[in-house]
Specification:
13-stranded mixed β-sheet, elongated
């Protein structure tokens, strides 16, 4: 199981590493490659004959303390964590196997298992499959493991899934969430250090902390709402990136095939960089913070509702393709660009 997760994570890393060079010309190839790999994995154990179903349920309570660590990973299935109280976490596991007949479905459940280990303020949840060198020569598996957890508010979370969505609500400890195929959603949280999906949407909302937030997807939208963090980095290869009411001193938002939007106020002395290769870049700004602007588009228009004291714009008779200058005291720095699309800077 660990080898399987490492394989898909490695595939994602290779795709992301290739993005700056190749995605600018063929952005759809990265998303397509990730999608086909994921779909091929999901088809590994599905067929018209897999109609019988067997279900196994169990619960476990672990004592991790008010700020302990929960490390959860599985191959197929959703992981959901919500805020509880006290010093214990309750873990509910539902395992569903599908097979050619009842005997086949039950055999899959008997050969696989979920291990839960705890100690020293830490608990680990792992889905286990038998080693191929063991007594079982089965090659195809169709087992879905859904994990639902109620944990203390200050719990530190590490969540990973190959095929499944991740959802966290009300946890203020460090939160790291990664999935290959599925959505990632976190709300009313604290230190969301990582929220990533290869094929799925990522959403972070109502979260405030003094740290860095990294949210990304290869094939999916990334959206932040009512988030406050010292530094924010979000990106997508094939999808939109959107920041709404985000308070941060440093924002880096980029997409290859999609739109990039920022809706909110700038911080004095803040730095904001929004880039798209094939899409629009839009900023709807509130407040009175001045900014230094660098805006450009290769094949689109650049428009600003703010009076910019220009020092180096390049226009032709039909359209403005770049704008460089200062609004107000110029305390913030705004750098926005797109290759194929327009840049619009408006008042909120």
């Amino acid at each position: 199981m660990e080898r399987t997760i490492r394989y898909f994570v490695a595939t994602a890393v290779i795709a992301l590493a290739a993005a700056p060079a190749s995605a600018q010309v063929y952005p759809e190839r990265l998303a397509s490659s990730a999608r086909h790999s994921r779909e091929a994995y999901q088809r590994r154990d599905r067929g018209d004959n897999n109609r019988a179903e067997s279900v196994d349920k169990f619960s476990r309570t672990v004592r991790i303390g008010s700020d302990g660590t929960l490390d959860v990973s599985n191959i197929a299935g959703d992981i959901t964590v919500s805020r509880g109280s006290g010093s214990e976490a309750r873990i509910d596991v539902v395992r569903t196997a599908r097979g050619r007949d009842d005997a086949d479905a039950k055999e899959q459940l008997s050969l696989t298992r979920v291990d839960i280990n705890e100690g020293n303020g830490r608990a680990e949840v792992r889905e286990r499959y038998p080693d191929r060198s063991g007594s079982s020569n089965r090659r195809n598996w169709s087992v879905t493991t859904d994990v639902t957890i109620t944990a203390p508010e200050g719990t530190h979370l590490i969540l990973k899934s190959v095929s499944g969505s991740l959802k966290v609500t009300g946890i203020t400890g460090d939160v790291s969430m990664e999935t290959v195929s599925g959505d990632v959603q976190v709300s009313s949280g604290g230190r969301v250090t990582t929220a990533k999906s290869i094929s799925g949407n990522v959403q972070v909302s109502d979260t405030k902390f003094d740290g860095s937030l990294d949210a990304s997807s290869i094939s999916g939208d990334v959206r932040l709402q009512r988030v406050s963090a010292r530094r924010v980095s979000i990106g997508s290869v094939s999808g939109n990136v959107k920041l709404e009411d985000v308070q941060s001193d440093r924002v880096d938002a980029h997409t290859t095939s999609g739109n990039a939007n920022f809706d909110g106020a700038l911080a004095k002395n803040g730095r904001y960089e929004l880039k798209s290769f094939s899409g629009e870049v839009r900023l709807a700004l509130s407040g009175n913070t001045g900014f230094e602007l660098e805006a450009s588009s290769f094949s689109g228009d650049v428009h600003s509702d703010f009076p910019i004291s220009s020092h180096g714009s390049s226009d032709d008779r039909r359209r403005r393709r770049s704008l460089s200058g200062t609004y107000g005291d110029g305390s913030a720095v705004v750098n926005v660009s797109t290759f194929s699309g327009s840049v619009v800077i408006s008042k909120r």
